[in-house]
């Protein structure tokens, strides 16, 4: 069996383009994932990845933009860009890999003798991750939610790494920096990188469609982070979101998920980053079985900030319809 490898030497000075080769297995042949590297010697070592989930395409687009302007902008250090981690999922516009049904962001660090998704994770963990001290994994929230442009992390046990990660996330200067506590973190790319002491920031965007306005904010955020790392010169600035330039740092926990008490069409009654008081209406549910049935109110459990809200859609009972948050206390 061949080993996962790069088709070029990362130590080559200047720009290199080549592939990360993921060996074939019983379920799929060898994959060659395009990789860009710009080596300007001493300095920070950054890995930028996109296309971890196949239906989140802002990341691959912004990664391609980065490859275009980086050669004229980068002054030191090394940046490796892998725009599409999971080409099989991207081709299918699917969160998971259709072939094995696996979520790439839950199988890290992967397995060399596993299924194709596990082999991708193994190749990235083994070949690229050791070459970086900081990782930006570019995601988006997908079409069924409204979510503000955000740089996110999860709570990290090591307080020093936690503080450095939050500072890095805030350096994107996006409208939202989020510390996101949820219970489904096993096998995430973040965890593998953080276990090796690396700073890992996930960007998340929402709103349904891949639009020019969001892409501009996303790209500006990545540029701000590169400036903060010292890889690129320039002045970091808050991008304009809803006619404002601002940023805030929030935290959310599993208990902040609001679920629908019954099936129905969910009608959102507020927008992301709205402040709500206890009892304020966040949305209502409309029954599709009866015109005489009263709609059901979904209210804020406490004073908080609306972080994510489902797009108008039919939801099942106990399905998540909103997520609230509050200012981070470290
Ligand atoms: Zn994602």
From TrEMBL:
<keyword id="KW-0479">Metal-binding</keyword>
<dbReference type="Pfam" id="PF24827">
    <property type="entry name" value="AstE_AspA_cat"/>
</dbReference>
<dbReference type="InterPro" id="IPR055438">
    <property type="entry name" value="AstE_AspA_cat"/>
</dbReference>
<dbReference type="InterPro" id="IPR043795">
    <property type="entry name" value="N-alpha-Ac-DABA-like"/>
</dbReference>
<feature type="domain" description="Succinylglutamate desuccinylase/Aspartoacylase catalytic">
    <location>
        <begin position="43"/>
        <end position="227"/>
    </location>
</feature>
<dbReference type="InterPro" id="IPR053138">
    <property type="entry name" value="N-alpha-Ac-DABA_deacetylase"/>
</dbReference>
<keyword id="KW-0378">Hydrolase</keyword>
<keyword id="KW-0862">Zinc</keyword>
<protein>
    <submittedName>
        <fullName>Succinylglutamate desuccinylase/aspartoacylase family protein</fullName>
    </submittedName>
</protein>
């Amino acid at each position: 069996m061949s080993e996962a490898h790069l088709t070029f030497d990362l130590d080559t000075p200047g720009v290199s383009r080549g592939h990360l080769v993921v060996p074939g297995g019983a379920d799929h042949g060898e994959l060659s994932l395009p990789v860009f590297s710009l080596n300007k010697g001493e300095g920070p070592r950054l890995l930028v990845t996109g296309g971890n989930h196949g239906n989140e395409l802002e990341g691959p687009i912004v990664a391609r933009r980065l490859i275009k302007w980086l050669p004229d902008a980068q002054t030191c250090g090394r940046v490796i860009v892998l725009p599409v981690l999971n080409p099989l999922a991207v081709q299918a516009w699917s969160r998971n890999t259709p072939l094995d049904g696996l979520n790439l962001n839950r199988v890290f660090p992967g397995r060399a003798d596993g299924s194709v998704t596990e082999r991708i994770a193994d190749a990235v963990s083994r070949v690229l991750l050791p070459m970086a001290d900081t990782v930006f994994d570019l995601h988006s929230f997908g079409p069924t939610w409204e979510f503000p442009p955000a740089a996110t992390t999860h709570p990290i046990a090591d307080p020093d790494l936690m503080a450095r990660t939050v500072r890095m996330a805030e350096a994107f200067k996006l409208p939202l920096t989020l510390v996101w506590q949820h219970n489904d973190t096993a096998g995430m790319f973040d965890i593998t990188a953080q276990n090796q002491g690396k700073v890992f920031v996930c960007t998340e965007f929402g709103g349904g469609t891949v639009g020019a306005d969001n892409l501009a904010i996303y790209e500006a955020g990545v540029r701000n982070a590169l400036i903060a790392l010292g890889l690129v010169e320039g002045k970091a600035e808050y991008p304009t979101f809803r006619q404002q330039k601002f940023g805030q740092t929030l935290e959310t926990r599993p208990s902040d998920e609001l679920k629908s008490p019954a099936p129905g069409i969910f009608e959102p009654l507020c927008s992301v980053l709205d402040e709500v008081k206890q009892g304020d209406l966040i949305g209502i549910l409309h029954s599709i079985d009866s015109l005489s049935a009263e709609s059901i109110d979904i209210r804020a459990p406490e004073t908080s900030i609306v972080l994510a809200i489902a797009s108008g859609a039919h939801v099942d009972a106990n399905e998540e319809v909103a997520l609230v948050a509050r200012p981070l206390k470290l």
